[in-house]
Design a protein that fits this description.
CATH architecture of the largest domain: Orthogonal Bundle
CATH superfamily of the largest domain: Winged helix-like DNA-binding domain superfamily/Winged helix DNA-binding domain
Shape: elongated
Number of helices: 9
Radius of gyration: 19 Å
Strand content: under 5%
CATH topology of the largest domain: Arc Repressor Mutant, subunit A
CATH class of the largest domain: Mainly Alpha
Number of domains: 2
Number of strands: 0
Structural class: mainly alpha
Order of helices and strands: HHHHHHHHH
Largest sheet: none
């Protein structure tokens, strides 16, 4: 039987979950450097409480995701809030029209991706968070509820509402764009 030290457990956690932690941080902070800093801070906290990992946390992935989420949210509160105004949506719609007119489908797809990302960023914090954890991090409603400290029903409701808001905003863009 091989005894594992807390440093071994920590090293394994870093190797296994570093990508997930970075993606969570980036989805909240939307900046590569800030996400790297948040990832480092997350693992500093995990290292500080590595004895919890050693004693057998039931779901280390969820525990580390919760820490990453909290670190990213704390950091985001220090950053200026960015919202998407109607003028910016109109500008994005105009850019989409010009891309279609030129026939550059690849550029259109890139623009649509950026537009969707900007619409997601413009969602209220509660909706953006659950949508990010659900769609991008592929966490289950139970895992998201544990990360956010809420109920599964609340998570499901927020994911549904976030998707509805995105659908409405995209619908408004389609109407203005002439796509049906």
């Amino acid at each position: 039987m091989i005894l594992r030290t807390s440093e071994d457990v920590f090293e394994t956690a870093v190797r296994e979950y570093a990508g997930m932690v970075f993606r969570i941080a980036f989805s909240v902070l939307r900046n590569h450097h800030d996400a790297e800093d948040a990832t480092q801070e997350t693992f500093m906290r995990v290292f500080r409480y590595r004895w919890k990992l050693e004693r057998g946390i039931r779901q280390p992935k969820t525990w580390i995701a919760r820490i990453a989420w909290r670190v990213a949210i704390e950091r985001s509160k220090r950053l200026p809030e960015i919202s998407l105004s109607d003028a910016e949506m109109g500008h994005a719609r105009d850019q989409l029209r010009s891309q279609l007119a030129s026939g550059e489908e690849c550029a259109l797809q890139n623009e649509m991706t950026r537009l969707l990302e900007s619409l997601i960023v413009a969602l209220p914090d509660q909706l953006r968070g659950v949508l990010t954890l659900s769609a991008l991090q592929e966490l289950s409603p139970a895992e998201i509820a544990e990360v956010l400290g809420t109920t599964e029903a609340s998570v499901r409701s927020r994911v549904f509402r976030a998707r509805q808001v995105l659908k409405e905003k995209l619908g408004r863009l389609e109407l203005g764009y002439g796509i049906r």
